[in-house]
């Protein structure tokens, strides 16, 4: 038996987040921004990444390679754009590479 108002669960969840929990949506996007670091930059960069965390719209990344850090600093603005696209909303305003 089919229901008249059947909707996909993803659509219902999206409507719920949009209408009721803006803070929760931002937190999920922040989590996606942290996850984006390893997803977008791949296994090669992940080998040299010690810690990635998000605090006050800034993504902090601890690297074990000074050479990699210098190279990534050149692409900082592009990384911010790509990470925000992956997160689904502009949550990263800066990246600090240590």
Q: What is the secondary structure topology, with strand pairs?
A:
Layout: H1 9-20, H2 22-47, E1 49-55, E2 58-63, H3 66-74, H4 76-87, E3 94-97
Parallel strand pairs: 2-3
Antiparallel strand pairs: 1-2
Helix pairs in contact: 2-4
Question: What key phrases describe this protein's structure?
Answer:
98 residues, 4 helices, alpha+beta, three-stranded mixed beta sheet
Question: Can you walk me through this structure?
Answer:
The protein is of the alpha+beta class and 98 residues long. The chain has a domain at 38-98. The protein has 4 helices and 3 strands. The protein has helices at 9-20, 22-47, 66-74, 76-87; strands at 49-55, 58-63, 94-97. The chain has a 3-stranded mixed sheet with strand order 1-2-3, covered by helices on one side. Helix 2 (22-47) packs across helix 4 (76-87). The longest helix is centred in the middle third of the chain and has 26 residues, at 22-47. It is elongated. The termini are far apart.
